[in-house]
């Protein structure tokens, strides 16, 4: 079997065929959804919370383009990476010890601001509400599996009125392991009582793809998200899409066909 990292990039035409093939055979009864870069464009919220923290730390500001490259591996990774980059840009010691020294104060400042503004500047991507409604109406079970901490992810889903369509949410701190580890996806499948081979993960990054692949789930990737600043079409998946709507419609059709 070919290793995922050695698979060549798939063209859109190839992935469209392989997605239909996967759907025909899997007829998915559950869909797991990533949050940042998939359901909600959260970069503008991150912008406010991170720059408030950096100002307090007397470090250089961060741009939204830089944020898009770092989001997706959880908040601890986010703060640590940004402290290292900005300490270095300021010409200060930026090794792990220097980062660790500032981490606690930076984390507190970041969370305090984020909790206050959560969802105010972030926007739900076009097609998300309609796509989730289509899946919900087709009887597909929905859950969110994000690397964002629960304390931020839960209120965000509520404020964006996406919580009614989703049965539950696992955050980056729900378990000891987070994506790209398959563990949170496997836990979600177990709770939904749908086996991974009948479950589709919809995400925006190589993290989501790796977790889904290791769990044995199908994987559909969205091109509008972050993917750590790398081109998403180079990440092997069952399909690459510009909106959740065609994904939801294809899932719905696979369940209707005999
Ligand atoms: O790292 C984060 O905070 C967000 O990650 P997500 O893309 O898994 O929602
Ligand atoms: Mg994401």
UniProtKB/TrEMBL annotation:
Residues of the active site: 34 (nucleophile)
Binding residues annotated for Mg(2+), in chain numbering: 34, 36, 204
Alphabetical list of InterPro entries matching this protein: HAD-like_hydrolase_sf, HAD-like_sf, HAD-SF_hydro_IA, HAD_sf, PGP-like_dom2, PGPase_prok
EC number(s) on file: 3.1.3.18
Catalytic activity: 2-phosphoglycolate + H2O = glycolate + phosphate
Coiled coil stretches, renumbered: none
Pfam families for the chain: Hydrolase (PF00702)
Record has Transmembrane as a keyword: no
Cellular compartments per GO CC: cytosol
Record's keyword terms, sorted: Calvin cycle, Carbohydrate metabolism, Hydrolase, Magnesium, Metal-binding
Cofactor field: Mg(2+)
Name of the top EC class for this enzyme: hydrolase
Pathway: Organic acid metabolism; glycolate biosynthesis; glycolate from 2-phosphoglycolate: step 1/1
Any single biological process term in GO: glycolate biosynthetic process
GO molecular function list: metal ion binding; phosphoglycolate phosphatase activity
Family: Belongs to the HAD-like hydrolase superfamily. CbbY/CbbZ/Gph/YieH family.
UniProt subunit comment: Homotrimer.
Its job: Specifically catalyzes the dephosphorylation of 2-phosphoglycolate. Is involved in the dissimilation of the intracellular 2-phosphoglycolate formed during the DNA repair of 3'-phosphoglycolate ends, a major class of DNA lesions induced by oxidative stress.
Protein name: Phosphoglycolate phosphatase
């Amino acid at each position: 079997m070919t290793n995922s990292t050695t698979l060549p990039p798939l063209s859109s035409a190839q992935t469209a065929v392989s997605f239909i093939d996967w759907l025909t055979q899997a007829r998915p009864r559950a869909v797991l959804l990533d949050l940042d870069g998939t359901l909600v464009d959260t970069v503008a919220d991150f912008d406010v919370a991170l720059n408030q923290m950096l100002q307090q730390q007397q470090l250089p500001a961060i741009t939204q383009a830089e944020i898009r490259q770092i989001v997706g591996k959880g908040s601890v990774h986010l703060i640590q990476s940004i402290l290292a980059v900005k300490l270095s840009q300021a010409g200060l010691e930026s090794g792990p010890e220097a980062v660790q020294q500032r981490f606690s104060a930076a984390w507190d400042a970041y969370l305090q601001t984020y909790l206050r503004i959560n969802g105010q500047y972030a926007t739900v991507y076009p097609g998300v509400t309609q796509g989730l409604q289509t899946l919900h109406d087709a009887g597909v079970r929905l859950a969110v599996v994000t690397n964002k901490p629960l304390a931020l992810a839960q209120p965000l889903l509520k404020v964006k009125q996406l919580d009614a369509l989703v049965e539950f949410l696992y955050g980056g701190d729900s378990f000891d392991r987070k994506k790209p580890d398959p563990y949170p996806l496997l836990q979600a499948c177990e709770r939904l009582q749908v086996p991974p081979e009948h479950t589709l993960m919809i995400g925006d990054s190589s993290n989501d793809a790796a977790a889904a692949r290791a769990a044995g789930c199908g994987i559909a990737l969205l091109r509008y998200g972050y993917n750590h600043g790398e081109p998403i079409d180079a990440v092997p998946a069952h399909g690459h899409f510009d909106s959740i709507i065609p994904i939801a419609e294809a899932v719905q059709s696979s369940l209707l066909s005999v």
